[in-house]
Design a protein that fits this description.
The complex is a heterodimer of chains A (333) and B (530). Chain A has 15 helices and no strands. With 333 residues, chain A is mainly alpha-helical. In chain B, helix 4 packs across helix 5. The longest helix of chain B has 17 residues. The C terminus of chain B is likely disordered. The chains are: A mainly alpha (333), B alpha/beta (530). Chains A and B meet through helix 1, helix 2, helix 10, helix 11 and helix 12 of A and helix 11, helix 12, helix 13 and helix 14 of B.
Chain lengths: 333, 530
Amino acid sequence: MTATATADTTRPDPVARVIAFVRGEAWLLGLLGLLAALLLFTKAIQPNYGATGIQGLALSVLPLALAAVAQAVVVVSGGIDLSIGSMIALTNVVAATQMLGHGPEYAIVVAIGVLLLGTAIGAVNGAVIVATRVADIIVTLAMSFVWAGCALLVLTAPGGSATPWLIALVTGALGNEWLPRGAVALLLVTGLIWIPVKRSRLGLALYAVGSNELAAFRSGVSVGRTKIIAYALTGLFSAFGGLAVTAVTGVGNPLPGGYTLTSVAAVVLGGVSLAGGRGGVLGPILAVIILAQIRTDMTFLSLNPNLATVAQGAILIGVVMLGSLAQLRRVRG
Amino acid sequence: MTLADADMLLEASDVSKTYGAVVALKSASLAVRPGEVHALMGANGAGKSTLVKILTGAVRPDSGRVVVRGRERRVHSPAEARRNGVLSVYQEPSLIPDLDIRSNLRLTETPLEPFRHWLNELGLERLEMSRDAREVPLAAQRVIDLARALAIEPDVLLLDELTAALPANLTERVLEVIGRLRGGERSVIFISHRMIEIAAVCDRATVLREGQTVAVVDVGTGSEERIVGAMLGELASEVAASGGAKAATARPAGATPRLSVRQLAAGARLSDVSFDVYPGEVIGVVALEGQGQDELFDVLSGSERSTAGQVLVDGSAASFRHPADAIRAGLVYVAADRAEALLMQRPVRENIALPSAARVRDWGLINLRDERKRVNEAVATLQIDARAGAEVRRLSGGNQQKVTIARWVAGGVRTMLCFDPTRGIDIRTKGQIYALLRDLAAGGAAVLLYTSDLKEIQLACDRAVVIFGGRVVAELPAADADEQALLRAAYDLRSDAPMPEELAAEAVAADAAAAEAASEPAVPPETPAP
């Protein structure tokens, strides 16, 4: 018994590996299936839906997808950030006002500065939570007012502009018309930051703190530092979200959109446990795309677009319920 | 189909239950006579918990029947089972933490007078009914659970590992009260890993192995061997061999202790403790509940700071501000509560890799090949059954505890601090853990082992340090540290003096008071980042 068990861990046979993979990534595969079904459905009700539609989809989901990634990082580490929408608004107005009337070279400096700004305000969120030991949900709710106020200090009404290269970075396609630049940008940003983090000791510490803070502490993980870094990463992805908003809309808008709560919804739909310690960033991205596509389909069906919001809520409950049912069946047999 | 034996108070026959592909119970049967204390035995994973859940209505069996007082019974919830006269005291305390004791009793419709009576019998007469349950120490909560169950007067009382978290003195009282129930109308089904308790109070024992009832044994002289034999099947000899493995220590003269503790004090309970642990030694720590042993281990593992005294590692003074400091100094901690040590939702691999990769300061990528090699070695060394390794919470308790040890073994152990590592673990895994601790010591590690199971001292340790009231009151070589001697020392009694009843009661009261004084948040989960 023990001999086979050890052999299993050292050299699993390919079939068992596939089964383990499917079991481990069941949620992700389910989301992919759902998305594929949705796209087929779209094609059925709107036969001329094609590359342009995909490009539009990629562009429209970009800010929200980045917000969802930002939320996923902090939720995995056992926290939650209700200031993501405000951080996106703040970085958006800073980017748009600073880029207005300057050349493309200066805009590069602005973009880097905005990303640093996002990281810094994210770290402030984390530091306040760690230092005051006030609940994360309260601190980030309070900070959402602070950052939203700061955004209004920078810009009282929509204004500013985006530098042309920033817009070009996310609109249109890259080579093949089926490969939208928005999607490439999203995958690059997320992949280049998240994959190294996840593979490093920091990633392990993030999941450990989210999974069991006391166990992580006893294992020698610096819990406070890990939390601050998690919030800083969330700030960084929010800043990318702010740049995306700038690129997609071409202006700065000091009023936060509905990014915060939708990002929480996407995280839940994307298979990340709100209790922390489980899930990744790919699920939430897929969840955002699915939610957006449902909205598009409802427009195609000439239904009242407000129904889409109702549907979003219903789907959220339905999917999470089905997910827990599936898990329950697995546990109970 | 024969009618159930009318002499039996409760009879379960041919009960089976499968969870997916896992067969939890194949064909279990259990027959309890009126007025009997009946032990239900089995290694972890033998199906005890499933059978208990079926008896209490928490789980429905796939097949088989449960007959109470000659009538077949189908229950679908614990509440229904209770109305049918079957009541269980579960492994975990069932008091609602935010309600006071009185409201808790009202919630379960417990008659107050009998409750008071049983509480007195159990030695907790000074309990204030207006206290919130969360303020009551864990051991007292277990006793309250028991008193509550006794007051409800069920036909069959199920006690699942009730004594596992109790200090020796309370255990004694509990066993005495249970013993007095014998010969009456009611029956008790008693589940415990401690053979000595079975011998003390039980009339018969039903032994489960791999989901089947393999033996029903009349408890008496020599039954211990038979029970263990039935529980283990063909494994019996192996465990006996590994459990008994004990090395004679030959300490070179003038050697430096790996770990020296000098006049250490911390919190309200640890006042003055000194001892040495040399490389190659396993030192046992023995204490009644709440004598400062928690604080001692918290200080040594870096979770709490001492208020006075000194800790020396390899002869030089050390002070730990964070567990990471202790780990760096080679002091690693194995907790009794696996939920405190493990990332339950994460894979075995990550759990084992975490401590060696814990320092965020090292930014580099983890070398996955190195890591896999170390993890596999640790899994093999500890014989962890990691088939359900995708999430640690799906492993059995024994395998989980092995993971908590494996994570340190993977990085190489210098000093291991084990706080009751075998609590609630089956006898086979216990044997493996003793053998592992001996192996670590033989490899030059120093091991400090606190245990609530006094037998472990002679099975695994070279010396025993006994702590009472925050001070070391005795230090015994393993050869002299039989349970009798240890218990006397733990009560701070001279070896020849009698052990009067009132002294025991006093110890209980002092224990409760001390636990109360220090039941405030034990360890802040975080020290501010420097």
